[in-house]
Protein backbone atom coordinates (compact mmCIF):
# COMPACT_ATOMS: atom_id res chain seq x y z
CA UNK A 1 0.00 0.00 0.00
CA UNK A 2 1.18 3.52 -0.77
CA UNK A 3 0.23 5.93 1.99
CA UNK A 4 -1.89 8.89 0.87
CA UNK A 5 -0.06 11.54 2.92
CA UNK A 6 -1.36 15.07 3.47
CA UNK A 7 1.03 18.01 3.90
CA UNK A 8 -0.04 21.52 4.91
CA UNK A 9 1.63 24.38 3.03
CA UNK A 10 5.03 25.41 4.37
CA UNK A 11 5.52 22.48 6.76
CA UNK A 12 6.89 19.71 4.53
CA UNK A 13 10.56 20.17 5.54
CA UNK A 14 9.68 19.83 9.22
CA UNK A 15 7.96 16.51 8.62
CA UNK A 16 10.65 15.22 6.26
CA UNK A 17 13.33 16.05 8.85
CA UNK A 18 11.44 14.06 11.49
CA UNK A 19 10.39 11.19 9.14
CA UNK A 20 6.61 11.12 9.48
CA UNK A 21 3.52 12.29 7.63
CA UNK A 22 1.34 15.05 9.10
CA UNK A 23 -1.73 13.03 8.12
CA UNK A 24 -2.68 9.97 6.11
CA UNK A 25 -5.99 9.30 4.35
CA UNK A 26 -7.36 5.74 4.66
CA UNK A 27 -10.82 4.20 4.30
CA UNK A 28 -12.71 7.50 4.41
CA UNK A 29 -10.82 8.74 7.46
CA UNK A 30 -7.98 11.18 8.06
CA UNK A 31 -5.43 10.14 10.70
CA UNK A 32 -3.57 13.25 11.85
CA UNK A 33 -0.21 13.02 13.61
CA UNK A 34 0.21 14.82 16.89
CA UNK A 35 0.41 18.57 16.37
CA UNK A 36 2.36 20.75 18.77
CA UNK A 37 2.73 24.47 19.26
CA UNK A 38 5.70 24.79 16.93
CA UNK A 39 6.67 27.85 14.99
CA UNK A 40 7.49 27.64 11.28
CA UNK A 41 11.08 26.69 12.09
CA UNK A 42 9.93 23.86 14.39
CA UNK A 43 10.82 25.56 17.66
CA UNK A 44 8.25 25.63 20.48
CA UNK A 45 6.28 28.67 21.44
CA UNK A 46 7.65 29.55 24.89
CA UNK A 47 4.34 30.40 26.61
CA UNK A 48 1.90 27.53 27.33
CA UNK A 49 -1.33 29.18 26.20
CA UNK A 50 0.30 30.37 22.95
CA UNK A 51 1.64 26.85 22.42
CA UNK A 52 -1.89 25.41 22.76
CA UNK A 53 -3.31 27.92 20.29
CA UNK A 54 -0.47 27.26 17.83
CA UNK A 55 -1.04 23.49 18.14
CA UNK A 56 -4.70 24.00 17.16
CA UNK A 57 -3.67 26.31 14.30
CA UNK A 58 -1.17 23.72 13.06
CA UNK A 59 -3.88 21.05 13.38
CA UNK A 60 -6.35 23.20 11.45
CA UNK A 61 -3.76 23.67 8.67
CA UNK A 62 -3.39 19.89 8.31
CA UNK A 63 -7.17 19.41 8.36
CA UNK A 64 -7.64 22.14 5.72
CA UNK A 65 -4.99 20.55 3.48
CA UNK A 66 -7.23 17.46 3.40
CA UNK A 67 -10.42 19.49 2.82
CA UNK A 68 -11.59 19.06 6.42
CA UNK A 69 -12.23 21.26 9.43
CA UNK A 70 -12.46 20.58 13.15
CA UNK A 71 -16.19 19.90 12.60
CA UNK A 72 -15.13 16.67 10.85
CA UNK A 73 -13.08 15.46 13.84
CA UNK A 74 -14.52 12.39 15.55
CA UNK A 75 -11.73 11.41 17.96
CA UNK A 76 -9.16 13.51 19.84
CA UNK A 77 -6.14 12.55 21.92
CA UNK A 78 -4.28 15.25 23.84
CA UNK A 79 -0.98 14.93 25.65
CA UNK A 80 -0.19 17.48 28.35
CA UNK A 81 3.01 17.89 30.33
CA UNK A 82 2.22 18.56 34.00
CA UNK A 83 -1.57 18.19 33.62
CA UNK A 84 -2.26 19.20 37.21
CA UNK A 85 -0.93 22.66 36.36
CA UNK A 86 -1.77 22.88 32.65
CA UNK A 87 -5.05 21.05 32.02
CA UNK A 88 -7.37 23.87 33.12
CA UNK A 89 -5.27 26.42 31.18
CA UNK A 90 -5.56 24.29 28.03
CA UNK A 91 -9.27 23.68 28.50
CA UNK A 92 -9.91 27.42 28.82
CA UNK A 93 -8.62 27.72 25.21
CA UNK A 94 -10.33 24.66 23.73
CA UNK A 95 -13.75 26.36 23.14
CA UNK A 96 -12.06 28.79 20.72
CA UNK A 97 -11.42 25.83 18.37
CA UNK A 98 -13.71 22.99 19.45
CA UNK A 99 -17.03 24.04 17.89
CA UNK A 100 -20.51 23.12 19.02
CA UNK A 101 -21.97 19.94 20.53
CA UNK A 102 -22.00 17.10 19.88
CA UNK A 103 -18.28 17.06 20.62
CA UNK A 104 -15.72 14.51 19.45
CA UNK A 105 -14.52 11.76 21.76
CA UNK A 106 -11.50 12.65 23.89
CA UNK A 107 -8.62 10.88 25.57
CA UNK A 108 -6.38 13.07 27.71
CA UNK A 109 -2.96 11.79 28.73
CA UNK A 110 -0.54 13.36 31.20
CA UNK A 111 3.08 12.94 30.13
CA UNK A 112 6.50 13.98 31.38
CA UNK A 113 8.11 14.85 28.04
CA UNK A 114 6.99 15.96 24.56
CA UNK A 115 10.23 16.74 22.74
CA UNK A 116 10.41 20.21 24.30
CA UNK A 117 6.69 20.96 24.02
CA UNK A 118 3.98 21.01 26.71
CA UNK A 119 0.86 20.20 24.64
CA UNK A 120 0.14 17.91 21.70
CA UNK A 121 -3.12 17.07 19.94
CA UNK A 122 -3.80 14.27 17.47
CA UNK A 123 -7.13 13.51 15.82
CA UNK A 124 -9.08 11.24 13.52
CA UNK A 125 -11.49 13.00 11.14
CA UNK A 126 -14.01 11.91 8.55
CA UNK A 127 -12.95 12.92 5.05
CA UNK A 128 -15.29 15.15 2.99
CA UNK A 129 -16.21 12.40 0.51
CA UNK A 130 -17.14 10.13 3.41
CA UNK A 131 -19.23 12.65 5.41
CA UNK A 132 -22.54 11.25 4.18
CA UNK A 133 -21.61 7.72 5.25
CA UNK A 134 -22.29 6.83 8.87
Structure description:
There is one protein chain. This protein is of the alpha+beta class and 134 residues long. The chain has a single domain (4-127), classed as 2-Layer Sandwich (60s Ribosomal Protein L30, Chain: A), CATH 3.30.1330. Helix content is 30%, strand content 29%. It has four helices and six strands; from the N terminus they run βαββαβααββ. The protein has helices spanning 12-18, 48-65, 83-93, 95-98; strands spanning 4-6, 23-26, 29-36, 73-81, 105-111, 119-126. It has a six-stranded mixed sheet with strand order 1-2-3-6-4-5, with helices on one face. Helix 2 packs across helix 3 (83-93). The radius of gyration is 14 Å and the shape is globular. This is RidA family protein. InterPro entries: RutC-like_sf (IPR035959), YjgF/YER057c/UK114 (IPR006175), YjgH-like (IPR038743). Pfam families: Ribonuc_L-PSP.
The description of the largest β-sheet is:
6 strands, mixed
Order of secondary-structure elements? EHEEHEHHEE
CATH topology: 60s Ribosomal Protein L30, Chain: A
CATH domain class name: Alpha Beta
The number of distinct β-strands equals 6
Protein name: RidA family protein
Organism: Luteimonas notoginsengisoli
InterPro entries: RutC-like_sf, YjgF/YER057c/UK114, YjgH-like
Pfam families: Ribonuc_L-PSP (PF01042)
Amino acid sequence: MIRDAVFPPGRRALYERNHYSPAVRANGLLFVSGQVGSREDGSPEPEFETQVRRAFENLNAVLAAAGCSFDDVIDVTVFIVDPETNFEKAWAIVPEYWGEAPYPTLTGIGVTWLYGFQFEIKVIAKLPEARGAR
